[in-house]
Structure formats: structure tokens, C-alpha cells
Amino acid sequence: MKKRFLQVENLAQRFPIAGRNKSLTVFEDISFGIERGEFVCIIGHSGCGKSTIMNALSGLDAPTEGVVIMDGKEVSGPSLDRGVVFQNYSLLPWLSALDNIIFGVRARWPKWSRQKIREHSHEYLHMVGLQEVEHRKPGQLSGGMRQRVSIARAFATQPKLLLLDEPFGALDALTRGVIQDELVSICASTAQTVFMITHDVDEAILLADRILLMSNGPEAVIAEDVVVDLPRPRKRGTVINQPGYYSLRNHLLDFLVNRSEAARTATTSAAPAIINPIREASGGPLPHAVNA
Amino acid sequence: MMSLNIRAAVLSLVFLVAALGMWEVSSEADVVAQENLTEYELLMGTNVQKARVPPPSDVIVRAWQELSDPFYDAGPNDKGIGIQLGYSLYRVLTGYLMAAMVAIPLGFLIGMSPLMYRALNPYIQVLRPISPLAWMPLALFIIKDAEASAIFVIFICSIWPMLLNTAFGVAGVRSDWVNVARTHQLSQLRTAFTVILPAAAPTILTGMRISIGIAWLVIVAAEMLVGGTGIGYYVWNEWNNLDLTSVIFSILMIGLVGMLLDLGLSALTRLIQYQE
Ligand SMILES: Nc1ncnc2c1ncn2[C@@H]1O[C@H](COP(=O)(O)OP(=O)(O)O)[C@@H](O)[C@H]1O
Ligand SMILES: [Mg+2]
């Protein structure tokens, strides 16, 4: 089997339960891969263990079992090769927007001159359209602006893999849409490899090449690996008119509403079933045939 | 309608005038009362012992005299108020800065390491409630120098709030920010200086502000014990001279300098305060 850029093998995470001689298995038997330049989303109900998976990918927490291999090397701790945008914008509140980006850039290239670090950081602040507010502290920025700074900081360090944990969860629908569009265009121009957690089905369809569906916890598994077979570039306004959009969307919603609870017992193999609802709807081969 | 600040200032002024007025009138009443003493009281010398509290007008005149020449030096028992305050400030700042140099690094250690916290906590809990003046005899015996003993007492009283606040601030730094440092592969030392220190700075400064207040309270008492120079000695000396006007004047100066020290640190706090 060909090794992918990011290879997750038989990952499990268990936490000890206080006062009892047992442990809580958040997830187990998680195996999947991500190709270079691919955008992969993971969807699942709140508390199923998405952030816990991400902590294992970033190296912040060691998994109880299994390995994460990126670019041929096993992940054994945090690294600048994996940029992280946390669920609650983790900007440093005592630094201005620009200084937050400089913080990342200086960590990445400690030998660069002050001038070069500044120019590089400026460029990325520009990319998210925030050059006007570069001197403002995060406390004086709106939620949307803060998340843009977080994203700019992550992109500015040019990581091999970008990890996003529900980056738009706390934003209003309008702001979310605008930043989603920005993310689409930045990813298209940089060919960034991205792993993103979301609970928004439409967001996942707009952004992802593949969507991993996670069953409910505890002992969660990845039940399906859904291909988003829609042409790019995708636009928020027009993607819904693409043939197959609704069959894909219905498939995802049906999973979240009806099947995520029972999915754990139905899934037996370590690798999730690859499913392409769009091709199915247009009379393509059955999912089992794809899986074989 | 006047702004709240202006109204408050006017009201403050009214209170001041009323208080000073009542004080002035009541000290005059004392003088009158002395003339109506019974023969017995005159015999017992009550009128002599009952030195009157000087009226504010006297205090203002004295303040004017002292402040117009604050740095004169006419021998060990007669120095200007500026010189006396200078001695006290020198002792407070020396002891305080030494305490900060010990408390902040140690607080960092305790805040970052649960092991060190548990190991050192019993000592801190025992040492902290000891009145700083209780150290004085031991300090005098070991250090054998009054000046240095006063500084030591300041050191020991200002160390605890800074130590505990630093440890508390460092331990409470949000794990998100520490994770930002980790994902950027910062070394321990860089994390301490670029993430934990600025994150804990407001809490550390609150401790420093509490400490300077305590140090200023303690120096007056310490100097009364040690003698020689300083504002505490000055108050005691003027009391022995039965010069209550000077006593009241120096009390006011102690309050004023204490307020300025606090204002200085609160300005510093505002500089490093951040909004989450
Ligand atoms: N350090 C930990 N100790 C114990 N339980 C944890 C820990 N971290 C996460 N969990 C548990 O793991 C589950 C998944 O959490 P999380 O990954 O945050 O979910 P999600 O991001 O999908 O909403 C939750 O039930 C949570 O209580
Ligand atoms: Mg989460």
C-alpha cells in the first residue's frame, strides 16, 4: 500500500477515569491518510473526540496507541511543520495583531533579520485584509478579525500541514462565509495541506476534498470517508447549484442524524469505507465496489 | 449638570473644609476648657499634662516651614523632612527590590512545578504570617547592623505577596497560550520570557503593589525601633520632643508618600495590563 503524506495508523486515545480502575476510550482504531495538498474535513457530534484526534496529529498529546507519520517521520511532539489554529482563537492578547504574526515568523526563522521578519509578517496580514488594524490588540478586534489573524499566523509559518479546530464555530454566519471564501482562495493559491474539524456540513462541502465522518463517542471510530466529487473552484453562492450537491449533503446529514450512533458497531475494519454519494446518485458504482 | 468628577472634587473639598473647621474649633475649645479646671485638677497638674492637639492652622504653618527647606541637616536630631523621607525610601526600595529579585524567579519555579509547589508550600505557610517586626531581634543579632536589619525586615515582609502572586499567576496561565508556545517549538526559556511572563505580569504586579504598601507600613515601625534616621524615627523623635504639630505633619507626609508609591505601581500595572 502506497504511503500517504500523512498516515494515521490504529490511533486510540484512552483517559484514566478518576477513582476507578478503568479508562475512558475516547476513540480507537482510527486509521486514515491525507495526500499532499489535500483538504480533509472531519465531522462528528460534539464530544466525540475530534479535538483529541487533532491534539494527537499536532503532537501536543501522545496517543495511547497507534502512530501518526508525516512525510515519513513519526510525530513525537509539536513541530512548526504542523501549524495549528485552535478552537478559541489562541492569539496572545498582550501582542498586537502584527506582533502575533511576528511571534510565529520569528519562531520559524530565528535567523532572519528584524526587517525581513516584519515584511514577511506584513505580507500575511495583508493576505487576510487586516493591514489597517495591525497595531490593535486582539481584545480590540472582532471575533472574525481575530480568527483571520490566527489563520494568517498559521499560514505565515508555512507549515507542511495546517490543523484547524472548528475555526469558524464562534462566528456569525455572514463573517463565517467571508472568511471561508478567503480560506478557499488562500488554499487554492498555496496548495496547503489542511486537516479541519467542523460541525457545519455546508462548510465541509465547500472546502473539503474528503470528509471523514466520526461516530459518536465514547469508543468513536471513523465510519465513512466521503469523497466530495465537486469541481473547483467552488463558490459559496454557486456550489449549491452543482449537480449532486444535495445528494452529498443529504448523505452527510443522514449520517449525523440517523447513523452516527449505530455506526460504531457497523464498522469492523480499521480503514473506513470510501463513499462517493455524488457518483452513487448519478448511477455510478456502488460504495462496496469502490471500497473493494 | 457638572460631570461626576467635578462634583466629587467639590464634595471632597467641602469635606476637607468641614473637617479642618471642626478640628480648628475643637482645639480652641480645649484651651477654653483648661481655664475652668477645678482646684484639684490644677493641683494634680492635669492642665500641664493635657497638651492640646494643635489646630490645623499650626500644622499648615509647620508644613510650609518644613517643605520650604526639606533638605537641611543640623545634626543627628534635626534633619529636614526630605532627608528623613529619603532614608526611609532608600531602605524600602532596597529591601523591596531585593525581595522582588528573589520572589519573582522563585515564584516562577513554584508556579511551573507542582513538585516545587508542594515541597515549599509548608515553609511559606509558616513564614508568611510572622509579623515582620518579630524578625528584628534575630536580624539585629545576626546582621549586627541597624541599617541592614531594617532593610532585611522590609525584604522579609515584601517577599510573600510577590512570591505567592507570581506563583499563582504563572500556574494560571491559560493552557491555550502555552500550547501556542509548544506548537511554535519555543524553548523553555523563551516560553518563560515571551509567553508566561507577559501572561502572568498583571498578577505579578498586583503582588508587587501589595508588597510596596506593606513595606511602607512596616518601615515606619522598624525605624521607630532602630532609630537614627528615617521618617519613623522622625515621628518618634518629635513625639519625644512633645512637638505634636510635627507629628501630625509627618503622619500626613507618610500617607502622601505611600499614596505616590501606590500610584507609581498602578501606572505600571496599566502599562502591562491586557484585555482577554
Ligand atoms: N484530558 C482529558 N481527560 C479526560 N477526558 C478527556 C480529556 N480530553 C478530552 N476528554 C474527553 O474526550 C471526549 C472528546 O473530547 P473532544 O476531543 O474535546 O471532543 P470534540 O472536539 O469532538 O467536541 C470528551 O468526552 C472529553 O470529556
Ligand atoms: Mg472540540
Automatic annotation (TrEMBL), chain A:
<dbReference type="InterPro" id="IPR003593">
    <property type="entry name" value="AAA+_ATPase"/>
</dbReference>
<dbReference type="GO" id="GO:0016887">
    <property type="term" value="F:ATP hydrolysis activity"/>
</dbReference>
<keyword id="KW-1003">Cell membrane</keyword>
<dbReference type="InterPro" id="IPR027417">
    <property type="entry name" value="P-loop_NTPase"/>
</dbReference>
<feature type="domain" description="ABC transporter">
    <location>
        <begin position="6"/>
        <end position="241"/>
    </location>
</feature>
<comment type="similarity">
    <text>Belongs to the ABC transporter superfamily.</text>
</comment>
<keyword id="KW-0472">Membrane</keyword>
<dbReference type="InterPro" id="IPR005890">
    <property type="entry name" value="NO3_transporter_ATP-bd-like"/>
</dbReference>
<dbReference type="Pfam" id="PF00005">
    <property type="entry name" value="ABC_tran"/>
</dbReference>
<dbReference type="GO" id="GO:0005524">
    <property type="term" value="F:ATP binding"/>
</dbReference>
<dbReference type="GO" id="GO:0005886">
    <property type="term" value="C:plasma membrane"/>
</dbReference>
<protein>
    <submittedName>
        <fullName>Nitrate/sulfonate/bicarbonate ABC transporter ATP-binding protein</fullName>
    </submittedName>
</protein>
<dbReference type="InterPro" id="IPR003439">
    <property type="entry name" value="ABC_transporter-like_ATP-bd"/>
</dbReference>
<keyword id="KW-0813">Transport</keyword>
<keyword id="KW-0547">Nucleotide-binding</keyword>
<keyword id="KW-0067">ATP-binding</keyword>
<dbReference type="InterPro" id="IPR050166">
    <property type="entry name" value="ABC_transporter_ATP-bind"/>
</dbReference>
<dbReference type="GO" id="GO:0015112">
    <property type="term" value="F:nitrate transmembrane transporter activity"/>
</dbReference>
<dbReference type="InterPro" id="IPR017871">
    <property type="entry name" value="ABC_transporter-like_CS"/>
</dbReference>
TrEMBL record, chain B:
<dbReference type="GO" id="GO:0042918">
    <property type="term" value="P:alkanesulfonate transmembrane transport"/>
</dbReference>
<dbReference type="InterPro" id="IPR035906">
    <property type="entry name" value="MetI-like_sf"/>
</dbReference>
<keyword id="KW-0997">Cell inner membrane</keyword>
<keyword id="KW-1133">Transmembrane helix</keyword>
<feature type="transmembrane region" description="Helical">
    <location>
        <begin position="149"/>
        <end position="173"/>
    </location>
</feature>
<dbReference type="GO" id="GO:0015112">
    <property type="term" value="F:nitrate transmembrane transporter activity"/>
</dbReference>
<feature type="transmembrane region" description="Helical">
    <location>
        <begin position="96"/>
        <end position="117"/>
    </location>
</feature>
<protein>
    <submittedName>
        <fullName>Nitrate ABC transporter, permease protein</fullName>
    </submittedName>
</protein>
<feature type="transmembrane region" description="Helical">
    <location>
        <begin position="126"/>
        <end position="143"/>
    </location>
</feature>
<dbReference type="Pfam" id="PF00528">
    <property type="entry name" value="BPD_transp_1"/>
</dbReference>
<dbReference type="InterPro" id="IPR005889">
    <property type="entry name" value="NtrB"/>
</dbReference>
<feature type="transmembrane region" description="Helical">
    <location>
        <begin position="248"/>
        <end position="268"/>
    </location>
</feature>
<dbReference type="GO" id="GO:0006811">
    <property type="term" value="P:monoatomic ion transport"/>
</dbReference>
<keyword id="KW-0472">Membrane</keyword>
<keyword id="KW-0812">Transmembrane</keyword>
<dbReference type="InterPro" id="IPR000515">
    <property type="entry name" value="MetI-like"/>
</dbReference>
<keyword id="KW-0813">Transport</keyword>
<feature type="domain" description="ABC transmembrane type-1">
    <location>
        <begin position="85"/>
        <end position="269"/>
    </location>
</feature>
<comment type="similarity">
    <text>Belongs to the binding-protein-dependent transport system permease family.</text>
</comment>
<keyword id="KW-1003">Cell membrane</keyword>
<feature type="transmembrane region" description="Helical">
    <location>
        <begin position="214"/>
        <end position="236"/>
    </location>
</feature>
<dbReference type="GO" id="GO:0005886">
    <property type="term" value="C:plasma membrane"/>
</dbReference>
